[in-house]
Amino acid sequence: MNQPAAPAGSHQGGLPYALGAYAIWGFVPLFFKLVSSVPPVEVLAQRIVWSLPLCFLIMAFRRQIGEYLTALRDWRVLRMLLASSILIALNWLVYIHAVFTDHVLAASLGYYLNPLVNVMLGMIFLGERLSRLQALAVVIAGVGVAILLAGALDTLWISLTLAFSFGTYGLIRKIVPVGSLPGLAIETTLLLPLSLAAAGYYIWLDDGRGFGSGAEISWLLAAAGVVTAIPLLLFATAARRMSYAALGFVQYLAPSIAFLLSLFVFDEPLKSAQLVCFLLIWASIAVFSFDMWRKMRAERMMPAA
Question: Is residue 214 part of a domain?
Fold first, then answer.
């Protein structure tokens, strides 16, 4: 996200917001299971339609409407946000499909891979150099993915699509000059025409499963906007109050919760290839996190020196 660096010593101030955001993202499969009778495309459309009004309410409260309008008049910003809106819509659709088809394990693996994908994209597109430990972490993760190619190919596309779509989305949002919430509002604005068309089509179809078929399912689909906007607001607040590197340690909370839900709540089978891959991914995360911690420690000691 396009957020300024937090001031020194502010890590604790942002931590509750970060924990809240990633906890919601971790438990969100429980919400989507409640609407699993609805076609995934309709869930995505309703999610976009209902999140936009909430974004406007929050922007009005935070006095960010002006930033939203300014960005709308900038064609370069709009082109970049059009690309990011397509990526985030793809990410949301694949995630909803994964939950509906009992592949939460594959989804959690995708978000475990995401930080390592970010490192690779930064190296390719931003000219960032990998440290030796980061390179080792990427190699270990690559071995894990190769094992999935051999033993769990049917769900590998879910993991890789989620990792690379969100990684590329984050890369665009990192370089586009607009804040998190106004950027999300513009993305949903750009997606709104297609979303309204899709939502209208399913209402017209009237197959008894989606919005309008009953009060409970209609309220749940409307609540998808809250589920979308609230964790993003918490994330934006956390990113302003703590360093992005520190935030990186907390991000593993969401896929860890999803991993546990898939095993102990949704009773998904854990294939041997998936288990080995997860073990390698966790090892690569340990190496990656140690390297981040080492750099953060060096940065804290530098002013004192």
Answer: yes
**pLDDT computed for residue 2 by the predictor:** 42
Q: Give this prediction's pTM.
A: 0.85
- 77, 178 contact by CB (below 8 A): yes
Segments of the chain scoring below 50 in pLDDT: 1-11
Query: Residue 181 falls within a domain, yes or no?
Result: yes
Question: pLDDT tens digits, residue range 65-75?
Answer: 999 999 999 99
Question: Residue 302 half-sphere exposure, CB side, CA atoms within 13 Å?
Answer: 7
Residue 3 lies in a domain: no
Tell how far CA 301 is from the center of its chain.
32
pLDDT at 290: 86
The total number of structural domains in the chain stands at 1
| Biggest distance spanned by C-alpha atoms of the chain | 68
Residue type, 180: S
Answer yes or no: is 218 within a domain.
yes
Q: Would you state the pLDDT for residue 296?
A: 73
In sequence order, what DSSP letters do the residues of 134-199 get, joined into one string? HHHHHHHHHHHHHHHHHH-HHHHHHHHHHHHHHHHHHHHHHHSSS-HHHHHHHHHHHHHHHHHHHH
Range of the domain at 128: 11-304
